[in-house]
Amino acid sequence: MNKYQKLASNTLIFAIGSFGTKLLSFFLIRLYTGCMTAAEYGTADLLYQAVNVLYPVVTFSMADAIIRFGIDKAYDNKKVYTTAMAATMLGVTVLALLTPIINKIDAFSGYAFILYVYCYCSSFKQLASNFVRARGYVKLFAADGIVSMLTTVLFNVIFLVFLNMGVTGYILSTILSDTISFILLTLIAELYKFFDFKYLSKKFFKEMLKYSAPLIPTYILWWITSASDRWFVIDMVGSSDNGIYSAAYKIPTLLMFVTTIFYQAWQMSAIENKDDKTISKFYSQVYGAYSSLLFIGAAGLIMLVKPLTYLIVDNDPEKNYIFAYHYTPILVIAMVFQCLCQFLSSIYNVRKKSMNSMLTSLVAAAVNIVLNLLLIPSMGVYGAAIATAASYFACFAVRIFDARSYVPFRVSFFKMFVNLVVVCYMAFVAIKEPKMTYLQLIVLFVVITVFNFEAVISTLKKILSRKIGKNAPKAQNDAENNSIPAGRHITMSGKINLNKITEDKNDT
Asked: Which of 264, 301, 340 is nearest to 64 (CA)?
């Protein structure tokens, strides 16, 4: 199996396990907006974003380190998992001591304890999930995604619909889902066999920390870019507007859902092929197809933004959620560049250039803060959306030159410019709704699809070509075959055989 086929195979497995669950999560928005007021939903989203920024700090960003070191054959997996778990235990202990202080913050008043429990459970669940993926249990990872989503839905229905617990019910649903997920992953993958304090090594902890520590400010800076606008909106406009703004974010996350599935597989391929002599060509091919699909997807979402908004949010005019579509097109463009930034970050991960990731994220955060302060007072929520899009674009502009100094690969800036102009005009049309709005959007969607078609097709040919695999040197094929030991197996149907969970990196 060549590297293109391997990437496609892993992407497919992650898609089977994740896409349905992500789509279901998308439609949960209607439940949230139906059971909570705009102000309550704004508060719930704020707590969710708070955990996102606390989590990497508490865990020393070990969930990222566990992927980088867990996939690399040069490191002992027992050392990797034990070190990551011990570091997380230390972090959550310190956070527990800080909970009384957190409770004094107005935005978290009354929610400090449940916020801590949320962060605690999420931290260990993420560690276990990433270690399973690093070990190559791709089907188990996918199966866990399904279980997590189903339990989240179940608990949301119980706590929001039947018990009417509002914000607390929203958070509690995730806590219980993460707890169940961690327990199942630990038992099925026998992760407890990888945890033993005798494998703790000060030297190795420093090595992992050297990689992960710069990622902590990176996460904080990334949070500033992606979530600080909510705080500015609440402070300058109000909680209700933040609830509408949070709802507007949900359609763009469809793009992130799909790309996250790809990135989970791509992250593994990038690390596994880090020393491949054709790595530049590999990146060129994958980046070309990936960016083309992103712009096609963005154009499709902008074209359907209004009907999708009416589909997923509560249509009660008094709650004002239906006006979210006014801000969504701008956020779709923002999401495109966020996804491209994520792709480029894989180069920093592979080359262990965490500092570069942090510095480029600093650019995005600085642009975001400045533009939020300048635009929100005069433009309201539109200003927040524009600030977000501009900050991600700024980060991309820096990374596209910096990252390619470590892994040189081809980029068509002309193609990027054309794509950007078309989707920006589509966003303008979708927001202003001039005459023949839908006709214009459909025509522009067709244009951008045709324009990007060749890049997608050429990559598909690489994936589907059997000639590549057949022409590979025998020694290489033997090496790939020998890297797949007999082990445990999880069926594609999701039925788990505890005696046969695969240990190969690409059980397909």
From this structure: 264
